[in-house]
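User: Could you check the structure of this?
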Amino acid sequence: MKNLSLTTVGAVSAVLTVVCFVVGIVLMASSGVQVLIPETGEGGLEWIADVDDAGGTFFAGAWLAVLGGVLGAVALVGFYAALRDAGPVMVLAPILGAVGLTLVTISHLTPIAMAYELVPGYGRRRREPLFPRGTDGHTRERQRRPQLHRRRTGLGRRGAALRGRDPQDLGRAEVIRSAGGSVPHG
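Assistant: Sure, the predicted structure tokens are below.
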């Protein structure tokens, strides 16, 4: 290790960068996901569905792309060492390249995190029916968020609306009585 020069390490890293990017892109494309960074809107939903269908092959390709970015930064440090004697202006290229590659690598990590967080939940929702047999959308909403339903119908806030304190809410109490429900008085 003492005999290795920085330029040699940079050259090996540059070759490995290309290998990681090529293999990563091939793995992602063969899994059915065409891009690593999703589009917004409907394209983003399609990307999530594609990642859900792809499984581990997509993640392997995505992580290889991130590894390629890290190895690329090392390659640019080796390039910096080779250009150090060429003058101060020539040194700017590898420094700016390393900064840019770092930002690109971070932008590749973001969709991987999104895939780990969003895809499992979306995949479950995509496979279950929107409204199970025998229910409608309102029933489904009441099952998901009962506290919201209580607020909308006036059953929350200690039943104040149903006790007839507010003239606008008297109509709600009448509707509940006509449906066979009991309205607390107080």
